[in-house]
Design goal:
It is a single chain. The strands form four sheets. Strands 1, 2, 3, 4, 5, 6, 7, 8, 9, 10, 11 and 12 form a twelve-stranded mixed β-sheet that branches. Strands 18-19-20-17-21 form a five-stranded parallel β-sheet, sandwiched between helices. Helix 3 runs antiparallel to helix 4 (334-371), helix 6 (444-465) packs across helix 11 and helix 8 (502-526) runs parallel beside helix 9. It is 31% helix and 21% strand. Strand 19 (540-548), helix 9 (554-566) and strand 20 form a beta-alpha-beta unit. The chain is globular. By secondary structure, the chain is an alpha+beta fold. It starts with a strand and ends with a helix. The chain has helices spanning 156-163, 169-186, 283-324, 334-371, 437-440, 444-465, 487-492, 502-526, 554-566, 591-596, 630-646, and strands at 3-5, 10-12, 17-35, 47-48, 54-55, 58-59, 65-73, 83-89, 107-111, 117-122, 131-140, 143-153, 234-236, 242-244, 399-406, 415-420, 427-430, 471-476, 540-548, 572-578, 598-600, 605-609, 616-621. It has eleven helices and 23 strands.
Length: 647
């Protein structure tokens, strides 16, 4: 029976391998500190946080999120540790809540590996605090207990760490917030939360025929699955049945139409996946939810595999240390036999983990094979036949595909990167050198050219998925360096005006869009939308800025930052083509600008993070097939529809 704790109450823990689940209404930082008998944290190495997410016996999330799962193995903690304190903090930054009193009360649950709740605690009564000690696990007379704490700190993480005896508390807190800000900047924005329903899961192999699905074996001494992302783990319940952590519940705002169902599978065969097996009001919404489900499934499956491999290596090292610490094993062949046994056990564990991963990957590959051909134009790659039947839509789709994502363990499995429309943040196409192999084999001039081509294809996709006349594209090219790459947009006549060049052209476009943002914001605040000037275009606008910061003076830079911050909420969006190194002369003044934008690259690069586990995903931009005229054909249809609307 679950113990619902109140502040100060404690409860005995029946086991030492646990999950701690955190649910909050907005992104929070989740960490933990290790304390000695007096509760003192002896150093930074006793703090688990996004920048250093793993300490012995404990692993936390790598980034801020609304939901967290922390893995705890109390038996694996250092002998000097007598207390584990779960810490929550609000990430700092413009537009973010500054106190827990402004957000929903966080909920914390201590569970077993099978998901059974042991104790829960809702952190009510918080006000000006921006960090809080949520609960603590503590050792008393050889047994472990959990206590609800709920101690808030208006001074934030610095105050909390100082209270726990951390040296250089302020510096440690600042470093954590810096890591969190960097993580949020590179993280893909997850879909909004909904309230009912979940993605249909098609079990593979014997489970599809009604037999019990085999779970990857878990050794008795294994840590909490095993100090990787516990939500990704698949292990066995105490009764022997499988527990599937691969995918948490996904919900929708109201009872949706029933999703398609696959034909029943033959006995012993995996169930056949179908396109649109997630909930939603329309097929587009179901496909959107399904793609995000595949993205999350792959993230968690790979996290489970990586964690299992890490555990197998760690266990081998521990067994070798124990065996070789005995002088008797250093004589004769005992030491060699111990090494062979430890390595054999390592290979067995990693082999089982790989088998489990291969099953998950096969299922996702089969799902991808049926989903890709069913995608609408907004979600489809340029090589999808749906573009050959393209027509200008009558309404805006839910989302747009920006490219593909993949992980090293599954190089052939690509997950579409979908972002909601209207765009919630600007996009920065990095034209600079990166550490990727693709960038290393490309010259600087080629990268800059590819970056502009990527901007053109994204602009074309945005123009193609909006109704005629409801999306305008402006281009700032101060030196005229991108004339060749911009020719598809210029030649088709879909731009709001010719690309702006020179300081005067830059100033004119920025002044025009800044005025639009100001007027719309004032009308919204005054509740007088009908008072907008008749010449004001109320559609969505995209500003493509090439080769930033060349051609930008201080005033233009300030206006650009203003558009990046305020523009998306009133329909003005930013697409920058820039090398961050070129803007170093401005110093840290532009750091908020870079962080506000979703960074993508013109070549494959592993810089994006998922919002669940925090893997580094390889992003690949969308390219039109070699020799294809699909881009020009689509833009011609957009231009024709616009001309028809003006008659």
């Amino acid at each position: 029976m679950t113990a619902e704790l109140v502040r100060g109450q404690n409860h005995t823990l029946p086991q030492t391998r646990l999950e701690i689940r955190v649910s909050a209404g907005s992104p929070v930082v989740a960490g933990a500190t290790l304390g000695d008998e007096r509760g003192t944290v002896r150093g930074a190495e006793w703090i688990a946080h996004p920048a250093s997410h793993r300490v012995p016996g404990l692993e936390v999330s790598r980034q801020a999120a609304a939901d967290h799962r922390l893995a705890v193995d109390l038996d694996a903690l250092p002998a000097e540790v007598h207390r584990v304190t779960v810490v929550l903090a609000l990430p700092v930054g413009a537009g973010r809540p500054v106190s827990f009193g402004a957000v929903a009360a966080p909920f914390v649950a201590v569970t077993g590996l099978d998901g059974t709740e042991i104790a829960t605690f809702t952190l009510t009564g918080l006000d000006t605090e921006s960090a809080v000690s949520a609960l603590e696990l503590y050792r008393r007379q050889g047994a472990w207990k959990v206590r609800a704490v709920g101690q808030g700190y208006a001074a934030g993480l610095a105050g909390l760490f100082a209270d726990q005896g951390v040296a250089a508390a302020a510096e440690t807190a600042a470093a954590i917030q810096e890591a969190v800000a960097s993580g949020l900047a590179r993280s893909v924005t997850p879909p909004p939360r909904t309230t009912e329903g979940e993605r249909v899961r098609h079990p593979a192999g014997p489970a599809a025929a009604g037999a019990q699905a085999p779970a990857p074996p878990v050794p008795e001494a294994q840590p909490a699955e095993p100090l990787g992302d516990p939500a990704s783990a698949r292990t066995e319940a105490p009764g022997g049945g499988p527990i599937d952590y691969a995918h948490p519940r996904r919900q929708t705002s109201a009872p949706p139409p029933p999703p398609p169902t696959a034909p029943p599978a033959a006995p012993g065969q995996p169930a056949r996946p179908v396109a649109g097996d997630a909930t939603g009001w329309s097929m587009d919404e179901r496909l959107y939810n399904q793609i995000w489900g595949m993205f999350e499934d792959l993230a968690r499956a790979v996290a489970a595999y990586r964690s299992a491999v890490d555990f197998a290596e760690s266990r081998m090292d521990q067994e070798l240390d124990r065996a070789l610490s005995d002088p008797r094993n250093r004589i004769g062949g005992a030491g060699d036999r111990a090494r062979e046994a430890a390595r054999a056990k390592r290979d067995e564990l990693t082999g089982r983990a790989r088998e489990a991963l291969e099953r998950d990957l096969a299922q996702l590959a089969a799902e991808s094979a049926v989903v890709e051909p069913a995608l609408p134009a907004a979600y489809a790659g340029w090589d999808n036949p749906v573009w050959h039947a393209y027509h200008v839509p009558m309404e805006i789709p839910m989302a747009l595909r920006l490219g593909d994502l993949r992980l090293g363990e599954a190089p052939d499995l690509r997950i579409p990167l979908l972002v909601r429309l209207p765009l919630e943040r600007g996009i920065w196409i990095d034209s600079g050198r990166t550490a990727s192999e693709a960038a290393a084999s490309t010259t600087g001039d080629q990268l800059r050219g590819l970056a502009v081509e990527t901007a053109v294809t994204l602009a074309a996709r945005l123009l193609a998925v909006y109704p005629a006349g409801e999306f305008s594209v402006h281009v700032v090219d101060p030196a005229g360096a991108a004339a060749g790459q911009l020719s598809p947009l210029v030649g088709s006549g879909v731009l709001a005006g010719p690309p702006a060049a020179g300081a005067e052209g830059v100033a004119s476009v920025l002044a025009h869009l800044t005025r639009r943002v100001d007027l719309v914001q004032m009308a919204i605040r005054a509740g007088a939308a009908d008072s907008l000037p008749p010449d004001l275009d109320t559609g969505e606008h995209l500003l493509i800025v090439n080769d930033f910061p060349h051609g930008f003076d201080d005033r233009a830079v300030t206006q650009l930052r203003y558009l990046a911050d305020e523009g998306p909420s009133v329909g003005v969006h930013l697409l920058m083509v820039a090398d961050r190194e070129d803007a170093r002369a401005y110093g840290p003044v532009l750091d908020p600008l870079w962080r506000s934008l979703l960074r993508i690259t013109p070549v494959a690069d592993d810089h994006l993070a998922d919002p669940w586990v925090g893997h580094a995903w390889t992003y690949e931009p969308l390219r039109t097939p070699q020799g294809s005229r699909v881009l020009e054909q689509v833009l011609a249809l957009v231009a024709e529809a616009r001309r028809g609307g003006r008659r």
